[in-house]
């Protein structure tokens, strides 16, 4: 009787979350695995759920430390780095953070940086356009 109740509870928990079909599709992508039991799929699904909950909680803590309300990639990276087993495989999978952009010191340098940006093919800067039209004799 006890085993039946445990099985029923497990099926209800699995059915409420509804990810078993997705896990089965992912497992079937591996050509070395021909068959997988429903118990194994349930364990894989539950472990992945626990892992994501742990990683999300760590990322939330990192975001709160930096007084942010939105979790960003840098927060997930910090949470993964804090947990040694996770950092061994997950940091290689996460995209590398972009290099920090150097901020210009004054407004004049901002105008200069706009001039230095490359233009799309066939486009001209407005200054060049005005110079060429004013230089044409009428």
TrEMBL record:
Keywords: Membrane, Nucleus, Transmembrane, Transmembrane helix. It comes from the Eukaryota. The chain crosses the membrane at residues 40-59. This is Transcription factor CBF/NF-Y/archaeal histone domain-containing protein. Pfam families: CBFD_NFYB_HMF. Residues 22-79 form the Transcription factor CBF/NF-Y/archaeal histone domain. InterPro entries: CBFA_NFYB_domain, Histone-fold, Transcr_DNA_Rep_Reg. Its main location: nucleus. SUPFAM superfamilies: Histone-fold (SSF47113). GO terms for cellular component: nucleus. GO terms for molecular function: protein heterodimerization activity; transcription cis-regulatory region binding. One of its GO terms (biological process) is regulation of DNA-templated transcription.
């Amino acid at each position: 009787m006890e085993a039946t109740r445990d099985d029923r509870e497990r099926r209800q928990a699995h059915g409420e979350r509804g990810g078993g079909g997705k896990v089965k599709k992912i497992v079937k992508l591996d050509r070395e695995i021909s068959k997988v039991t429903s118990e194994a799929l349930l364990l894989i699904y539950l472990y992945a759920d626990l892992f994501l909950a742990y990683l999300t909680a760590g990322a939330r803590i990192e975001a709160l430390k930096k007084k942010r309300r939105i979790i960003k990639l840098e927060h997930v990276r910090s949470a993964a780095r804090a947990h040694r087993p996770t950092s061994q495989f997950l940091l290689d999978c996460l995209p590398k953070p972009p290099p920090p952009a150097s901020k210009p010191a004054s407004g004049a340098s901002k105008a200069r940086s706009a001039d230095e940006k490359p233009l799309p093919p066939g486009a001209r800067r407005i200054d060049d356009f005005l110079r060429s039209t004013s230089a044409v004799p009428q």
